[in-house]
Structures are given as structure tokens and as C-alpha cells.
Amino acid sequence: MTGSLQIKKDTYYMVLNLYGSDGKRKPKWISTGLPVKGNKKRAEKMLRDCLQEYEQQELSPKYRIDIRFSDWVRHWLEDIRPRIDAVTWKQYEEVAVAHVLPYFDESELPLCNVTRQSLQDFIDCKRTNGRKDGKGGLSPVSLRHFRNVLNQSLKLAVRNDMIPSNPCDGLVLPKLEHREFAFYTGDQLQTMLDAVKDEPLYPLLRVAAIYGLRRSELLGLRWDSIDFTANTLSVKHTVVQHREVFCKDKTKNASSRRTLPLTPDVRKLLMDIKAAETRNRRLFGGAYNDNAYIFKWEDGRPYVPDYITRRFRELMAKHGLPKIRFHDLRHSCASLMIAQGFTLKDIQEWLGHANITMTANVYSHLDMGRKQTIAESLAGTFL
Predict the structure, then answer these.
(1) Contact, 15 vs 4, CB < 8 A?
(2) Rounded distance, CA 107 to CA 307, Å?
(3) Which CATH number fits domain 186-213+263-370: 1.10.443.10, 3.90.700.10, 1.10.3210.10, 2.40.10.220?
(4) What is the CB-side half-sphere exposure of residue 64 using CA atoms within 13 A?
(5) What does pTM read for this prediction?
(6) pLDDT digits (tens, 9 = 90+) for 10-33
(7) In the chain, is it the N or the C terminus that has fewer CB atoms within a 10 Å radius of its CB?
(8) Are 249 and 260 in contact (CB under 8 A)?
(9) Residue 62's pLDDT band (cuts 50, 70, 90)
């Protein structure tokens, strides 16, 4: 419970921060009856006593009993909306609307009655999908998205003195499944690039293979990202899609914002794209979609992220190439760097990972060549 002193008509008033059933703040004004002059300390003591009295009442404030947990999650979504990335908010909303809200709307569980067990029941329900054999439920990754929504909404409730502690602490989730990433070898990458040489997406795929850029980073490349004088390519914009397309002047994390040298072939590739853009702008005239993005259709419309994923899958099938995801080109770039003897630190900086631990978790199992050298060296010690 929080509150403050306010002055109205030369009198101190205590303003208590209460909340209605909709989760919205509804301040309660209580007159102290004390004139402002000479009574500040007495008014402060009255406020402290009043807050303590409310906190000690078993059912106080009564609004806590009235707020359903599902309504509080709705309040939390609106509360955080102005302060977080639009894509992140969309993801939170999708999880809440599809899973959290239907479950807790049906149970009508009050916020004050949320316990770790009630949250665990929700997680277990989603994990098993109601089946005793546990099959058909949602993945450990999805369950962690659910826990994130539960945890953050309840943290807000704690901060606003709606509940004494966060019952989300101690939830048990299934372990994440270890996944082996698919990737192309250097020879397979060359075969893939040769096969798609005449495809419109060839320039994008070549840049993806060399730099290991994320899809969002590739589509976020603008001409201000390229410095032909310094021969550099800077990753500083992204284009992402979650139901709708979002263009952002920021990267996934601080480490993702990086500057890399232009290789001679990529420099020529980009200069050819620039020349083609000039011709297309003249050809389409007023119908040209003028923008600063590098990878786009002939009429200037930027590629949509989902199109890149879908078209890559079609091209691999069309040319009879091994099936991998578009994102696996990033893994292929990393595996090629490992095969050529570059360190995990090199790979972290090239790919823009937040920290080297992530790089090691994802790619250390690929470093078999280096491990083989160690094994042979150790074995030779005992000859």
C-alpha cells in the first residue's frame, strides 16, 4: 500500500493508492483535518498510521479481493505498453490472449488468491494438454513464454502492493530440449549459391552466407549502413514480423549493433544493386516505392520477412538442395568459421551474440577439428 500527502483548501489530505476491479488505480482522498501551517509532521504520521491500518486489515484493501487475476494481466499489458518494444508487447499480448486469459477467466481466480500451486496447475495443463501421457502439449520454450507473462504481471502486483510476494517464484518447468542445428558445409554453401545465381534473392543469400546476418538484420540493411569509402557494412536497423511488419532503428541487443568489413565481391554486389535501383526508379517513375532499404522488389517495395523464409524453402526444394531453414545460413556461417580455425570469440563478434556463453552453447559442439587436434596431442604424450 502506498500513499502521499496532498494539499487542498489549505488542508492536508491523505491520498491512498487503491485499485478497482478493472485493475486501474483509484486514489482515495481522506482529510486529516489539519491546516497546512505547522502540521506537516503530524500529517505525515497520520498517513503512516493510516497506511499501516489498511495493510493490517485482513481483507484490506477490499479491491484486492475484487480483482481477478486475468483482469490484472490485462491491466499489466496496458501498463507496460508505452515502455517496451512494440514487437515484444505483441508477443506478450499473443501469449496472454491465447493462453493465460482464457484459462484464468474460466477459473475466475482472484489476484489475492494466486498461489504457486495454481500457477503450476496452469503450466502443467499446458504441458500435457490434458493428456495423462503428457503428449500433445506445448513445448518447454512456449511454457517459458507463459511463465514470463505470469512473472512480470505478478511483479507489478507486488510493486503496487496488491500482493505481498510473487507466487511465480519456484515454478517447475520441463528442461529445454537440446537441439542440433542444421547447417551447410563450405562446399554445400557454394553449391547453393551456384544454384540460385540467377534468382532475385541471390544477393541477399550471398550476404547472408558470408556475414551470418539474422533475417531481421538483412532486411534492415539501408544504404546508410554501407560505407563504400571505408568499405564497411554496419548492422544498425532491423525489420521484424510478428503478425505485422515492424521497422526498427535498433538491433536485437547492444552486441548485435556491429560494423563489419565489406568483402570485394559483396562491395561489387551492392554497387550493382545500387545501379539497378537507379534504373528501376527511372523505369517505374511515380509508381516507384522510394525508400532506403537495400533488399527489395524492382518497384521498390521492401521484402516482407515471411516471404524470405518461404521463398528460401521453395528454392532449396526447386534445386534439390538439403533442407535447412533460412536461419540455418547463420549457423552455416559459424560452422565455416570454426572449420577455418576462428575462435568462439571471433564468431561471437562476427555474429553479434550478446555474450560468448551463447556462442559456446550453440556452436561448441561443432568444433570437432580443434578437439581432434587436442586428442591427438594428448595421445602422443604417452607414446
Answers:
(1) yes
(2) 40
(3) 1.10.443.10
(4) 19
(5) 0.63
(6) 999 999 887 665 556 778 889 988
(7) C
(8) no
(9) very low
